[in-house]
Amino acid sequence: MAEKRYRVGILGCGGIANAHARAILKTGQMDFVAFCDIDEVRAKDFNERYAQGGAKVFTDYRKMFELVEMDIVYICLPPFAHSDEVEIAAKAGVHIFIEKPIALDMETASRMVKACKENKVKSQVGFLSRHGEAVQTVKRMIESSEAGQVGLFIAWYMCNSLHSPWWRDKSKSGGQIVEQIIHTYDIARFLLGEPVSVFCHLDNLFHRHVPDYTSEDVSATSVRFKNGAVATIAGTNGAIPNKWISHWKLVMQNFTVEFENANNATLVQTNLPYTRTLNVNSDKDLFLAETLDLINAIENDVETLCPIDEGAKTLKFVLAVRESGETGKVVTIEQ
Fold it and tell me: What is the pTM for the complete model shown?
């Protein structure tokens, strides 16, 4: 029996959409039928680059959903640009991939979750680190109780870039925590469970002279989780130019883990009379992995590794962190 083929559209033809488009082509099961961007030139460029000019091009996503039959849409919009595209796609029976953060407020995020649930479409949020081989290995160890009690997660994210003009504007991006370091906060949730309280310090120390730069560029957060575990997560946009540095360390009852990245980690077993070191090494394509996971969910009627309700929970987490940083108070996260 021949593999089912999927008709795919991309909404938002910016930088990250290129990585998804390349992964889509690698599956061998997906055909581009539409590209949409407010900049028609970018949409046409994607059409030529990834569909040899054979797809439809739009500047209005509503017309795209109205005029083109799709099985899956990849929504790669900046945070401030989200409106009702998820609801329209879900009502049309189109399965959804959406980049993080899925929104800038919980009201919008909740509408998205409700639409996907009511219309029974599959969804995947672009927290690609969840798919890493090292992350998956540690997750299985936690779920099987092999790892023992999860205790401490320490992480930091450092870069130094002005990024796009919208990114610097907290009202459009949500700030560095909400738009960028959210990947790290999501991994903390994925491995340690649900957060119950947060306290954050944040400030803009390095970019006060940059016009319209309103995002924080330093932050440090303390998190308490429902299972008693704690975490510290720090970030900055004032470190080494042109380098994106991300480190995670996880201490569990029976293992201490140092992640090089989502695919690679060193695990030291600590509940033996001798030291035992395990290494996880992989070059898994994480963009391809999340796309294949979405296909699997559609074909086998199961959940993806990060459905849209998970994206909403991580959004709630980082919004609480930002609130704490802005108010100077501990914020409790209601479950």
Answer: 0.97
